[in-house]
Amino acid sequence: MTLMLLDSASLWYRAYYGMPDTLVAPDGAPVNAIRGYLDMTARLLSLYKPNRLVACIEGDWRPSWRVDIFPGYKANRVDATDGEEEEPDTLTPQIPILLDILDAFGIALVGVDDYEADDVMATFAVKESGPIRIVTGDRDLFQLVDDSRDVKVVYLAKGISQHDLVDVSWVANKYQIPGERYALFAMFRGDPSDGLPGVKGIGEKGAALIANSFANVDDAMSAALESHISLPPALAKKIIAGADYLKIAPTLVHCAKDVALPKIDLQVPERPKNLDEIYQFQSTYALGASIDRMIAALGW
Q1: Domain 179-253 carries which CATH code?
Q2: pTM here?
Q3: Domain extents for the chain?
Q4: Beta-carbon neighbour count of residue 227 at 10 Å?
Q5: What does the DSSP 8-state code read for residue 202?
Q6: CB contact at 8 A, 283 and 23
Q7: How far is residue 207's CA from residue 48's CA, in Å, rounded to a whole number?
Q8: Which pLDDT tens digit goes with each residue over 71-86?
Q9: 3-172+256-297 sits in which CATH class?
Q10: Tens of pLDDT, residues 230-266
């Protein structure tokens, strides 16, 4: 009984930039993100045939508990005019329509106040039984792969047709580190997309060396202070200089796995008595084959 977790924001951004802006509703409103999201979801459903499905959304894209310890968290994405997340003007109005359509299909939508979608997916990944497939274009979620529980990431960086199915060995081959230590690697390397600097002067090569030699930040710091043979002196010096950042890095980088999730039915929805509401969306927004593909992928 495969559970598929959709990183919805990742999907609708990818859909928005991947579909032509000439796709519009009869009133001229853009629907490219809506159509792209539905098309991708339909293809994923057809390919992986999950029995359970959740569209995960942001309760807060900059949770207060992360910003409190590091004000720069995702500050690179803040719109200076209103303090909200920067978002294309023609994408913003599509999101509530898309969520209404997913609701009409009966697809579970889950977002929790003061948590990111990543945290919601991480909690599902540890609380629910496998197999679990996490659909995202965000490499942060590589930290969740778990071969023993069959948790894998459907990584969309190269698109649906050429996507990667990421497991522990994929991470190991890609970054030349123990596959279960991606989060540790990311703490030292940093992540510019989230405004996380990592440890100054340590790039991928240095972060990989650390991840290969130590299981956690504390072990790496102790080794640096003791001039461990595994650490070149220059790298040890950088680790020590980054001590203040490394105290908070685990909280910033690790997904929360203890989110209070709502008790809802995760089963892929069965066909409703009628599809009138769905067909109304199809007509109103000229969603054509995108709606048809979803209906077919759900086996309706």
Answers
A1: 1.10.150
A2: 0.94
A3: 3-172+256-297, 179-253
A4: 10
A5: -
A6: no
A7: 34
A8: 999 988 887 666 677 7
A9: alpha beta
A10: 999 999 999 999 999 999 999 999 999 999 999 999 9
